Amino acid sequence: MALDLFAGIPVTEYAAALKWYERLLGSPPTFVASDTEAVWELAEHRFVFIEQRPERAGYAMHTIFVDDLDAFVAQIAERGLAPAERETYSNGVRKTTYRDPDGNEIGFGGAPV
Asked: For position 60, what pLDDT does the model report?
C-alpha cells in the first residue's frame, strides 16, 4: 500500500509563520497550496505543512528524526533559531525542540551518540 504523510501545523499569521518555517527547515516550501497554506516535502512522500487557522494555532506537536542531529541543529542555529528545549532520554535518544511564534512544537530527534 502506498502511503503519503501530511503533518499539519495551524498558525495564526501565515506570512510570519512562512518566514519562520523557511528558517527552521532551511528552504522555501516545496509548493504553496493556497494563499494561506505552504507545504515542505521533508523526504519522499513525507510532508509538513503550515496553514493559517488561528482558532487551532499553538497545539501542534511533531518530532522528526534526522541522521545527524548535531549537524542539523547547527544549521538551524546558523539561520538564527535556537531550540527551546534539549532532552536526552534514558536510552540515549536525543531530542531538540523548537517553538514557532504560536507555540507549536517541532522537535528533531537523533540516535544516541
From this structure: 98
Q: What is the pLDDT of residue 80?
A: 98
How does pLDDT run across 3-62, given as a tens digit for each residue? 999 999 999 999 999 999 999 999 999 999 999 999 999 999 999 999 999 999 999 999
46 forms bridges with which residues in the sheet? 5, 43
How many Å apart are CA 113 and CA 62, to the nearest integer?
A: 22
Task: Please name which of 29, 30, 32, 37 lies closest in space to residue 10, comparing C-alpha atoms.
Answer: 37
Residues contacting 77, CB < 8 A, separation 6+:
none
The C-alpha atoms of residue 7 and residue 62 are separated, in whole angstroms, by 8
Q: How far apart are the first and last CA of the chain?
A: 34
> How far, in Å, CA of 62 to CA of 78, rounded?
22
Tally of CA atoms within 13 A in the half-sphere of 9 that contains its CB: 26
CA 64, distance to chain mean position in Å, is 8
